[in-house]
Amino acid sequence: MYNILLGVYLLVSLGLIGLVLIQQGKGADMGASFGSGASNTVFGSSGSGNFLTRSTAVLATLFFVISLALGHLSTKSTMGSNEWQDLGKTPVSTQKVTQAASTKAPAATSSKKEKTSPAEQVPE
Question: Which family does it belong to (predicted)?
Fold first, then answer.
């Protein structure tokens, strides 16, 4: 299922890129309105969308829906229900290191440290 959605996602994204590159922007008629010729669509409403704009909207919607589905499937497959229950447990490799460190003799921890205030440490 994941691989099929990934293939469809690739096709939708390539189609979306192609449709966006094919379309002519609203600013393309700007020169005609200031020079020779009159263009009422530059600053006015463009009316209903044509086939390219509608198909771009459909592909963009599919792109976002498939993105959400792929994100949901990828997180669902990597995090199982048992992993949520085992979050408090320490991994085996960490347990071995902790046990090895606790069996070693501590090095001179019984020495007394002199307590000095920060004011005494400042040189005059």
Answer: Belongs to the SecG family.
Burial class of residue 33 in the structure, from the number of CB atoms within 10 Å of its CB (0-12 exposed, 13-18 middle, 19+ buried): middle
Tell whether 60 is covered by a domain: yes
**How far is C-alpha 65 from the geometric centre of its chain's CA atoms?**
15
Please tell me the pTM assigned to this model.
Answer: 0.49
- Domain range for 59 is 1-23+50-76
Q: What is the pLDDT of residues 10-49, one digit of tens each?
A: 999 999 999 999 987 766 666 555 655 555 555 555 556 7
Length of the chain: 124
Query: Does 83 map to a domain?
Result: no
For residue 42, the tally of other CB atoms under 10 A from its CB is 16
DSSP 37-83: S--STTTS---S--HHHHHHHHHHHHHHHHHHHHHHHHHHHHS-HHH
How far lies 59's CA from each of 19, 53, 68, in Å?
A: 9, 10, 14
